[in-house]
Every structure is written in structure tokens, then in C-alpha cells.
Design a protein that fits this description.
By secondary structure, the protein is α+β, with helices and mostly antiparallel strands. The chain is built from four helices and 21 strands. Strands 9-8-7-20-19-18-17-16 form an eight-stranded antiparallel β-sheet, with no helix packed on it. The chain has a seven-stranded antiparallel β-sheet with strand order 15-14-13-12-11-10-21. It has a four-stranded mixed β-sheet with strand order 2-1-6-5, with no helix packed on it. A hairpin with a 6-residue loop joins β16 and β17. It is globular and about 55 Å long. 33% of the residues are buried. About 6% of the residues have low confidence.
Length: 376
Amino acid sequence: MARRNGVVVAARLGWCCLLVVALALGVMGQPPPSPQNEDDTPPPPNPGNGDDPWGGGDGYDPPPPPPDNYWTYEDGHPRTEVKSYANGQPYRANYDKPNKIYTCDDDWGKKCIAQCPDLCPKSCYMSCSDCETTCRCMVFPGTSCGDPSFTGGDGVTFYFHGRRDRDFCLVSDTDLHINAHFVGNHNPANDRTFTWIQALGITFGDHRLYVGARKAVEWDEDEDHIEITLDGEPINIDTANNARWVSKVLPDLSVKRIDNVNSVKVDLADVFSISASAVPISDEDSKIHSYGKTMKDSLVHLDLRFKFHSLTNNVDGVLGQTYRMDYVNKMNVTAKMPIMGGAPKYLSSGGLFSTDCAVSKFHRNVGGSHVLASAA
């Protein structure tokens, strides 16, 4: 009796083993899942990967090619190959909205379609590499926009009005100095003079980099108003989003367009990254803020975003000081918009590339250039 029970148990175990093996073979025989687009549809085969576009191994039968209208939605608008973002959040382009739409390829050659978010429907930065749009004047550390408001390294936003047609040091460190040229408009109706940043003069090592906005009586959004020079020589970049220029003298210095015209990103590797957009004062802005804009000048200026990678704790300047670890904010932070005073100590009397402001920390080539060493 015991022997017969043992045979039954052994038989059952045998059947279980056979069932497990059969299931394993069934699973192993299945083709791997295909990669998906953001809308859960499979991308078209990639002949560059050989006979198997999905990397499934020999003998895998690839799916048929996509239909001719694959890269369009039912309404005829193009699809995107990669997920798009706006201000750090997933955001699919909606062609029914008036928000500006960008189309370009990412760093892997895949189609990117991204749209300015509702917070800034017509004025955003576009990163093709990340397939992401970002509002130009979001409150990020290092941002400067409009009648210039700054957001410091400590995260506090404040105004610094400077003075029309004068230069002020924004950042002054051991071997990096950034001045800003201010332009302005006086409105006799309220007896106020409003100012904006028109250009940057960036000094590092023995080099001088100029980034400015050209004056325009009438604004044309299809015309490029950005002007850039290195050591007095113009930098010319194709008018296409993601077009890039790299310095032959300083291979770590590059300029990339982040829109077809009027927006660029300047990078000195391991030192700084500066996004600059040339923008006008619109009639609506002038009416809301009582700027007193006339038909003689569209008041083109720069909206800016700075990122610094190697500032010392000795840095100074309107913006630079806010990055010091021991910086103490003495402004009235309870005010609706704090104002930084002390304009005279930030004033540069010798021009846009002068390093003579009272708080200057710049020492050209003393003990070698920390900036150029960082970029090397």
C-alpha cells in the first residue's frame, strides 16, 4: 500500500515538473516587448539595429512598417518620438492652444515637439536635448528679467534699478567679472525712469565676451536681435534652434541657439552657463507698468538666467554676493518687492569691460586663471 502511494506521488511530481518546463519554454519563446512612445504606440522599426529592430535576438520577426500617416495624429498634427516636458512636468503639445510650439531633434536624433506652458505661452526657453520648455522668467536662482528683477543665489527676488546708460558689476570674482549695461526710458507722465539690461560684458582670463540686444525702433520677432563677440570678433551662428558654435581658441566655450532667433545659451565648461533672450517691451506691458514707451524705440533688452559652477566665497556684485555662504540679506524682505540699494559701489566707470567697481574682486591672471583651469 505504501509502495503504491509512493508511485502516485512520484507520478504527480513528474507531471508538475513537466508542466513547469512547458510554461518556462512558452515564456522564453515569446518575443520581447516592443518599446513604446509617450502615447503607448510602438515606434517604427529602426533598420540601424539590423534585422531585429527591437534587439530581440536572432529569429525574431519584427513588426510590419508603420503606415504612411504614422507620424501624424488624426487631425494631421505631427507626433513626437520622445516625451516632452514644460517646467519640469510632462506636457504634451496641444495644437488647439495659442502657446508657442517648438519642433527639433534631441541628442539622439529623435523628433521632439514641445510647447510653452500656460504660465508663459509665448516666452519660454526650449531645450532640444531634454525636449523641455521653461518659462524665461521663472523664479530660479540666477534669473534676471524685465525692469530688472533678480533672483539671488539665496532664492530671494529683488529689484536693482541701476541707472540708464551706465554699467554695473553683477558678478565679480577672482578671475570672472560680469558687467551689465543698463538702458532706460523716462516717462514724463509719472516722472519715472525705468531701466533694463541691454548687454553683458564678461571678462575671464585675458578674454572679453560680449552678449547684447540690438536696438530696434520696431520689433520683428523673425529678425535676430542678439549680438555676440569674443575679443572683439563677431560670433555668427546659424539661425536654427540647437545650432551651435564652438570657439577654436577656447574649445570649452560654446554658444547654442535655444530658439531660431533671439535666444542663446552661452557655456564655459565648469564655469558658467548663461541663457539670454532679446525681448521688447510690448504696448500692453507699457500700458500696465506705465513705462511710457514711444514709437521711437521698442526698448529691446535681455532676459537672463545665470548658472555658476566655480564661484569662490569671495565673490561680490549685485548678483554675485548672494552666492556667498556668509551672505546676509539686508533688504526689506517683507516688502512686496525688495529693492537693493547701494548702486554707486557697483558702478563701473571705465566701460562695459571695466573691472573697477568698488566691490571688484577681479585680479587678471594672478597666480594663473582659476576659470580657465576649471574649463580646461
